[in-house]
Structure formats: C-alpha cells, structure tokens
C-alpha cells in the first residue's frame, strides 16, 4: 500500500528486470492482470488497484482519465520506475494512452482499449432521450437510468458513476497521435465492448503501431489466449 496524494493506493510488485506496469479495466482489480504478470516474471512487474477499485481508496470526487494518468505518474515516480513498459486493458489502456502521450514510455501494449469516442446509443438510451422531452417525464427518466444503464454504471457509487461518464465520453485521439513509443494492439475479433473496428482506427493514429487480431476472442482476449499473448509480449518487449 502506498500513500499517493491523499489516497491509499494498493499495489503489488515482484520479479526483476525491465519494468512492466499492468493496468486493469473498469470494475476490475490486481487479480485480473496477475495471470499475465506471472507469465512475464523475467521482468519487474508492478500491478495496482486503480482508485475506486480493489483495495484502493475511492477518489473524493469524480475523476477524468487525466486524473488517473497523473496518479500513475505519481506512483511510478514514488517507486523510482523510469521509462516503463505499459500494458493496459480497456479502461487501463485509456489511462496508458494518456500517460504515454505525456511521459517517457519504452513500449506500450493495449488490449481492447477504445480511445476514439463514437456515438453508439442503444435503444434504451434513445428511449430515455425521448422521454426527457415529454412534459413530466424528466424525473422518471432519471430514475429509469439507474436500472437501464450498463452493469458497470449500476454497480458503481455516485462518485464512480460520474467518473465512468467522464471516462467514456473523453476522446483520446489527440493523445494517441502524440505517442512516440512502439505500440502493440492485441484485440479480440469478437470484442463487443471495444469493436475491432476501433482497433483498426486507433492503429492508423499511432506513429509506430501494429495490430494483432485474435480470432474468436472477446473483450478479454488477453486471458482467453493467455499463452499466445504471453509469447507475443515476450517477443515484443
């Protein structure tokens, strides 16, 4: 546990060699990235619980991707990690994109990490939008939102709900364009949370990016094809 800013931040660190920092997705924790970390034990592995997840404290107010990126910078500075290899899944990948656009990173690996904002409204969302326009329905639509939103949204505290809204609404395209380090995208072709088309768009934004598509894998491709992904990473890093 480390005190970063005014928050208690949970992390683990093990192994020796190059520094690899693993960043988990929304609603997850250290345990989701540890299987991959164990495959890369010839390096020094650092995995954290982002604030609001696992055993780390929740932020005092809603955060943006930039806030999480700043916290990551404080942690790696505290741990004397320089020029790390960043590996991020989904939300963790968003944080990694922002961090890598502002700080030295040796290499970057992203799993199912959408950074380009798209308007993909579900039928439920469209219904809520229409309901708000009907007299007397605005209050009802706000109540319905709690039950019709995503699982991540429904399971979150009020602060983390606001944080999730800020995170998913932020377009990181400009950040992606600034990244100088070699970047590897590993994506499942059946990823519904971050469709493969997002990965192909992201690859075009990167100065030194490459995409590996894992056929038949979903948003959790890095776990579903763990031995294959580990082999790819060992060659890349």
Order of helices and strands: EEEEHEHEHEHHHHHEHEHH
- Strand proportion: 15-25%
Mean pLDDT metric: 87
The outline comes out as globular
Helix content: 40-55%
Question: What ranges have pLDDT less than 50 throughout 5 or more consecutive residues?
Answer: 120-128, 143-149
User: What is the CA–CA distance across the termini?
Assistant: 28 Å
Give me the side-by-side strand order of the main sheet.
3-5-4-6-7-8-9
Which structural class do the helices and strands define? alpha/beta
Gyration radius, in Å: 18 Å
Largest sheet: 7 strands, mixed
Number of strands: 9
Number of helices: 11
Description:
With 237 residues, this protein is of the alpha/beta class. It contains 11 helices and 9 strands. It has helices at 30-39, 65-78, 91-100, 123-132, 138-148, 151-155, 158-169, 173-178, 196-205, 221-224, 226-236; strands spanning 2-4, 7-9, 11-14, 19-23, 44-48, 85-89, 107-111, 183-188, 209-214. The protein is globular.
């Amino acid at each position: 546990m480390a005190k970063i800013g005014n928050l208690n931040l949970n992390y683990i660190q093990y192994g020796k060699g190059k520094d690899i920092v693993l960043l988990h997705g929304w609603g997850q924790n250290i345990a989701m990235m540890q299987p991959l970390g164990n495959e890369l034990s010839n390096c020094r592995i650092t995995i954290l619980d982002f604030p609001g997840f696992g055993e780390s404290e929740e932020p005092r107010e809603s955060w943006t991707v930039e806030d999480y990126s700043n916290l990551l910078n404080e942690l790696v500075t505290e741990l004397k990690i320089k020029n790390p290899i960043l590996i991020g899944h989904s939300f963790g990948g968003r944080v990694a994109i922002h961090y890598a656009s502002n700080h030295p990173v040796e290499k970057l690996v992203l799993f199912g990490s959408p950074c380009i904002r798209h308007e993909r409204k579900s039928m439920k969302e469209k219904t809520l939008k229409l309901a708000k326009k009907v007299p007397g329905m605005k209050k009802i639509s706000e109540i319905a939102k709690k039950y019709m939103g995503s699982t991540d949204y429904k399971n979150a505290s009020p602060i983390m709900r606001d944080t999730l809204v800020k995170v998913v609404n932020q377009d990181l395209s400009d950040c992606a364009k600034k990244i100088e380090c070699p970047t590897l995208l590993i994506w499942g072709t059946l990823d519904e949370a971050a469709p493969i088309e997002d990965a192909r768009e992201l690859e075009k934004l990167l100065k030194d990016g490459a995409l590996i598509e894992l056929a038949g894998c979903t948003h959790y491709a890095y776990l579903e094809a763990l031995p294959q992904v580990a082999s790819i990473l060992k060659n890349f890093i």
